[in-house]
TrEMBL record:
This is 3-isopropylmalate dehydrogenase. Residues 2-348 form the Isopropylmalate dehydrogenase-like domain. Gene3D superfamilies: Isopropylmalate Dehydrogenase. NCBIfam families: leuB (TIGR00169). Pfam families: Iso_dh. The gene is leuB. Mg(2+) binds at residues 218, 242, 246. It catalyses: (2R,3S)-3-isopropylmalate + NAD(+) = 4-methyl-2-oxopentanoate + CO2 + NADH. GO terms for molecular function: 3-isopropylmalate dehydrogenase activity. Catalyzes the oxidation of 3-carboxy-2-hydroxy-4-methylpentanoate (3-isopropylmalate) to 3-carboxy-4-methyl-2-oxopentanoate. The product decarboxylates to 4-methyl-2 oxopentanoate. Keywords: Amino-acid biosynthesis, Branched-chain amino acid biosynthesis, Cytoplasm, Leucine biosynthesis, Magnesium, Manganese, Metal-binding, NAD, Oxidoreductase. The record marks 136, 186 as: Important for catalysis. It comes from Aurantiacibacter sediminis. It is an enzyme of class 1 (oxidoreductase).
Length: 352
């Protein structure tokens, strides 16, 4: 089994250290671990946020664990050299089109949610976010209008094959859960969304046992806060999924808790090749201070164990250790508690 670790920038290396300690404690037989540079650190060391050797390392692995990228010192670079291009490049180059972002209540955290405890208790949603298309990957640029103004543009588009493949992922996910799928779009305004909705409806014919609904994204943002328990699986495009998942994190309690898996079609000897990362970013405001919550990173490792290495038992062990630490009141600053990054790592290890 081969895993590539890409810690990245900001809090990335700090939280990756804790995930690495958990990984080492599992003592998986025959595991080989590589480490590579991505993001701002890669730009500074190699002149590019996604060096060729990093990409090669990812391709050779069964799964990639990704910390976070983003460095304020790189904000003025040309777009193709910015740290965020590493993550977009990896997703595109590796064909990772399906992003699973689960958000589930943790026992003992109801009071930390931005919602009322009785509402927070109901959350068990899986956001299936399309990851290779949408406005993220359309033609973009800066041009001058006829009257001499600057105009920025980003083309939003989806091909039906792109919608269909993510639809199948979402319907199949719903089969393994509560059989409810809500497709989120903006079909009242966007042609991209009309096609999205049409293809979702066509695909539904293959899944008669799944209860399908549709919701406009503005309403979905509101409903996620009002009554999150109504959702089982949400399927949505790249941009809407990005925003809704950060919002879902605060319903659970903190962005420091939500993990994600980016999957494609490539199968490895042990499962599906994927890249796993917290949904949060490099948090420059707290980087280097030992304050970051490493739980989202550790839970991302659990997803890697499950999907790419076929180690369901180990995945559950890690998830239970995190849940137990939270239940025991081990709370980081993001949850209003005093625990630092290392202390949270220690607490998870002790419960493994
Ligand atoms: N996957 C990624 O690598 C990824 C994701 C999102 C943003 N980014 C990048 O990260 C940089 C910062 O972006 P941002 O500030 O908008 O979002 P962010 O997610 O990095 O931070 C938002 C807020 O949440 C806090 N936070 C995030 N993760 C935390 C954790 N584990 N523990 C405690 N607090 C945490 C931060 O301190 C900050 O106050 C930008 O360069 C952005 O492009 C990268
Ligand atoms: C850093 C950025 C490109 C990325 C995204 O928008 O997909 C991040 O916000 C995420 O949620 O993974
Ligand atoms: Mg995001």
């Amino acid at each position: 089994m081969k895993i590539a670790l890409f810690p990245g920038d900001g809090i990335g290396p700090e939280i990756m250290d804790e995930a690495r300690r958990v990984l080492d404690a599992l003592d998986l037989p025959g595991l080989v671990v590589f480490e590579g540079d991505v993001g701002g650190i890669a730009y500074k060391r190699h002149g590019h946020p996604l060096p060729e050797e990093t990409l090669t390392m990812a391709r050779a692995a069964d799964g990639v664990l990704f910390g976070a990228v983003g460095d304020p010192e790189c904000d003025n670079l040309e777009r193709h050299l910015r740290p965020e291009q590493a993550i977009l490049g990896l997703r595109a180059e590796l064909g990772l089109f399906a992003n699973l972002r689960p958000a589930t209540t943790f026992a003992g955290l109801e009071d930390m949610s931005a919602l009322k405890p009785e509402i927070a208790r109901e959350i068990d949603v899986l956001i299936v976010r399309e990851l290779n298309g949408d406005v993220y990957f359309g033609e973009k640029g800066m041009r001058e209008t006829a009257n001499g103004e600057r105009e920025g543009y980003d083309l939003m588009s989806y091909a039906e094959s792109e919608v269909r493949r993510i639809a199948h992922v979402a319907f199949r996910a719903a089969q393994g859960r509560k059989h409810r799928l809500c497709s989120v779009d903006k079909a009242n305004v966007l042609e991209t969304s009309q096609l999205w909705r049409d293809v979702i409806i066509e695909t539904a014919a293959d899944y008669p046992e799944i209860e399908l609904s549709h919701m406009y994204v503005d309403n979905a943002a509101m409903q996620l806060v009002k009554k999150p328990g109504q959702f089982d699986v949400i399927v949505t495009g790249n941009l809407f999924g990005d925003i809704l998942s950060d919002q879902a994190s605060m319903c659970v309690g903190s962005i420091g808790l939500l993990a994600s898996a980016a999957l494609g079609e490539r199968q490895t000897e042990f499962g599906t090749f994927g890249m796993y990362e917290p949904i949060h970013g490099s948090a420059p405001d707290i980087a280097g201070q030992g304050k970051a919550n490493p739980m989202a990173m550790i839970l991302s490792l659990a997803m890697l164990l499950r999907h790419s290495l076929g180690r369901e038992d180990d995945a559950v062990r890690v998830e239970n250790a995190v849940a137990k630490a939270l239940e025991d009141g081990v709370l980081g600053g993001d949850l209003g508690g005093p625990a630092g990054t290392r202390e949270i790592g220690d607490a998870v290890l002790a419960r493994l």
